[in-house]
């Protein structure tokens, strides 16, 4: 991903399309996210992660936390999980929709100001 | 000798599969840090076995290893329900050791605690994906339940089709609002309680028997 010339100039935001994520394995997605976040970038996923991938993202994030270096991530999606509404057939066939805009950033740079069912407001600071 | 060993192995495998349906279900107690998971686990364990599960504390991440209390027999309406309780570390997406310094901890201790906490969260996630048959999700009813960790974890639990019981803990606190939790997660039943004071535990046990029996 293209780097900004000088990180002091601002905060880099990577908007990653669903199409780009579709071709990646779970671990490749998690690596793409965490590599960006560890560089101090805000990563926005058009279609988010599956619950299983979210679970692995938490697990891998935990293994990478290091004092004075990386405190972890802040992640926000809308609270409504479409998986809960999916029909049994959808779940069995694996065709349920889990698409949800997801914002992920370094825990020490992004702070959620307000969140409800259809609005996420966050404050992003420089490194 | 080899034949005998094989025969013995086959018999124990057959016996294991024969009795596997009677194995107690492993019920994971999940939730964010400081929701009162260990207080609840200790309350259940003390009520039905006389022993505690682990130490409780106001300092976040007191529980940094998943702890299992086996064969907890809960009696409801003359029926016995046997479960294994798994008390898990509070799940979070970030751990900053400097927060522990505010609890009068030396830097070395705070760094060690944060490292153990991260390992504990990773362990809890692994248990959730692989090793639990049902979940008791504990929330502190005096705080906002609309957090990303809660939303994600409940989504993960739902995606695995695990039975989940949401408990609104700390109803003894003035700021407690059970309705706020019901509004946040209307797709699940929410049971109010105070694990610390033992309030409404009868209903909690009724629901445990109903959901996991």
From TrEMBL, chain B:
Gene3D superfamilies referenced in this protein's UniProt entry, alphabetically: P-loop containing nucleotide triphosphate hydrolases
Domain G: 26-170
Sequence intervals crossing the membrane: none
Protein name according to UniProt: GTP-binding protein
Organism expressing this protein natively: Haloarcula saliterrae
NCBIfam families: small_GTP
